[in-house]
């Protein structure tokens, strides 16, 4: 019996292959149902013009009931965007990845959301507690209980 | 680590300190110039005063000698120690930890704690309560703080084992790193804004329909698995459709696991049980199903980010976490204000269930 998560991910992947990703988002790899990579870039005018970031999704067997672990890839010379909600280790403080996750959301929906999060950024800066956070951040961003107190970015 | 550099000893005021280099070394306490670097344990300048009965040959490192010196001075103020040629005895030392640069701690001496030279108004009672005969003195608990600060800064594992190495000992932390760790831990444990699951009772009472030929359901999708409802399924359980009060239909097998983690509709976030304020969708826009961005702006007292700017927010969420009383107050208040809530009693009891599966919770990965 195939698990709910792999059925759902297979469906999402099939849609990505048939319909393609939204503009600015490209599938890099999805070799299995545990880890997918995408690149995202912000189209049009933004602080991130010409920059391309790699986004990693990790799924557990509870997907889509449990949220995917989403972070920017910061290895092999890749870097996380400088953004008030993105830590330099690639972790992202976004409510939809935690408390506000809903199984209705999908991998592509998360990509689009993060893309628009970057697009609407007004000032390139790291979160104020970046240094403190990355010193002891768990490997998996889902282990961090982020608090979301800023809806403007 | 820099704090492992040997201390210096001032022969004028008998203090152990790191000298001021101006440019020749002078005592950080009394500005005397008769100072000596304690590099060689076998030639400890303090032995000169103690009469040579120190820890020589026991293999105790200079740091322990410093500690011993501290104990001699601080913990037993009544015991006359070595002769003090100078009228302003005291000493200071530096603790280096992490990136915060050295912190100089001075004990005794003319401008520091417990000395009688200041007026009564300047004195800090807890520090000087033992003060007698003009000796520098320091209360035991405070001394413990200083000692732990020293240990933490030094990060030594050989005296107190791993506890000291990690900068934590019991309830004490004595460096920035250890404090960070604790705050991180608390943030992870904090469940003040986590979703509240639906109760068994609520889930049992949801209307369930078995799909039949010609059902209007067959044109709809389950928003969780994103598949259309259909009659021919491998698993007959997938023919059972649960419709939430907001009229959104789901496979029973899809929605029940979700409701166990969050008592909300995945599509419109309709609350089957009252959720923490954080979660409440704006009243005037109930249909925010695929709203993928940030949470609704809070009204009133949502705990603010502990890890970010607000210290008071951190404390309040901390207290909210510890004091289950205050937390359940908040929930029952929520319940009263929420007309859609059908079962406030059950919800507040289940909301304390910390072990439940969390959406965004961590199952086995990889």
Automatic annotation (TrEMBL), chain A:
Gene3D superfamilies: Ubiquitin Conjugating Enzyme
SUPFAM superfamilies: UBC-like
Keyword Transport: no
SMART domains: UBCc
Domain UBC core: 4-153
Leader sequence segment: none
Keywords recorded for this protein, A-Z: Ubl conjugation pathway
Name under which the protein is recorded: UBC core domain-containing protein
Organism taxonomic ancestry: Eukaryota, Fungi, Dikarya, Basidiomycota, Agaricomycotina
TrEMBL record, chain B:
Positions of the UniProt region annotated as Disordered: 73-133, 276-366
Taxonomic path: Eukaryota, Fungi, Dikarya, Basidiomycota, Agaricomycotina
Domain RING-type, residue spans: 222-269
Bias-annotated ranges (Polar residues): 89-115
Coiled-coil portions: none
Feature: compositional bias, Low complexity: 289-304, 340-352
Protein name, entry field: RING-type domain-containing protein
Any Pfam family the entry gives: zf-RING_2
Keywords: Metal-binding, Zinc, Zinc-finger
Originating organism: Marasmiellus scandens
Top-level taxon of the source organism: Eukaryota
Gene3D superfamilies hit by this protein: Zinc/RING finger domain, C3HC4 (zinc finger) (3.30.40.10)
InterPro entries per record: Znf_RING, Znf_RING/FYVE/PHD
């Amino acid at each position: 019996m195939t698990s709910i998560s792999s059925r759902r991910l297979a469906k999402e992947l099939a849609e990505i292959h048939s319909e393609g990703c939204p503009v600015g988002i490209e599938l890099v790899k999805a070799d299995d149902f545990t880890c997918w990579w995408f690149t995202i870039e912000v189209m049009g005018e933004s602080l991130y013009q010409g920059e391309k970031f790699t986004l990693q999704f990790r799924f557990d067997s509870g997907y889509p009931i449990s949220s995917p672990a989403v972070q920017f890839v910061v290895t092999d010379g890749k870097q996380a965007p400088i953004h008030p909600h993105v830590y330099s280790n690639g972790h992202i403080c976004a409510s939809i990845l935690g408390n506000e996750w809903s199984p209705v959301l999908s991998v592509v929906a998360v990509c689009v959301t993060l893309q628009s999060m970057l697009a609407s950024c007004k000032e390139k800066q790291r979160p104020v507690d970046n240094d403190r956070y990355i010193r002891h951040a768990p490997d998996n961003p889902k282990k961090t209980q982020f608090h979301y107190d800023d809806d403007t970015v | 680590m820099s704090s492992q550099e040997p201390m210096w000893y001032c022969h004028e005021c008998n203090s152990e300190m790191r000298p001021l280099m101006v440019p020749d070394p002078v005592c950080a306490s009394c500005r005397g110039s008769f100072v000596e670097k304690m590099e060689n344990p076998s030639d400890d300048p303090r032995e000169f005063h103690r009469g040579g009965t120190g820890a020589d040959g026991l293999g105790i490192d200079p740091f322990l000698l410093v500690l011993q010196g501290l104990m001699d001075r601080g913990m037993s103020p009544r015991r006359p120690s070595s002769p003090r040629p100078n009228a302003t005895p005291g000493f200071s030392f530096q603790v280096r930890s992490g990136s915060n640069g050295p912190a100089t701690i001075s004990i005794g001496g003319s401008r520091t704690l417990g000395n009688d030279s200041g007026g009564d108004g300047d004195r800090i009672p807890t520090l000087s309560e033992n003060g007698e005969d003009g000796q520098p003195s320091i209360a035991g608990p405070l001394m413990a703080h200083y000692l732990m600060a020293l240990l933490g800064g030094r990060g030594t594992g050989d005296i107190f084992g791993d506890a000291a190495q990690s900068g934590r000992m019991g309830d004490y932390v004595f460096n920035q790193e250890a404090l960070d760790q604790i705050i991180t831990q608390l943030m992870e444990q904090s469940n003040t804004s986590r979703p509240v699951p639906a109760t068994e009772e609520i889930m049992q009472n949801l209307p369930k329909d078995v799909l039949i030929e010609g059902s209007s359901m067959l044109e709809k999708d389950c928003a969780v698995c994103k598949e259309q409802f259909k009659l021919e399924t491998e698993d007959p359980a997938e023919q059972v459709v649960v419709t939430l009060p907001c009229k959104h239909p789901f496979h029973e097998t899809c929605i029940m696991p979700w409701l166990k983690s969050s008592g909300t509709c995945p599509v419109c976030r309709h609350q089957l049980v009252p959720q923490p304020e954080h979660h409440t969708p704006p009243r005037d826009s109930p249909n925010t199903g695929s709203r993928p961005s940030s949470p609704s702006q809070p009204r009133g007292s949502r705990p603010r980010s502990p890890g970010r700017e607000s210290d008071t927010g951190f404390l309040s969420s901390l207290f909210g976490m510890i004091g289950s009383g205050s937390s359940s107050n908040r929930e029952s208040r929520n319940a009263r204000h929420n007309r859609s809530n059908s079962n406030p009693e059950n919800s507040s009891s289940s909301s304390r269930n910390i072990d439940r599966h969390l959406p965004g919770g961590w199952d086995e990965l990889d």
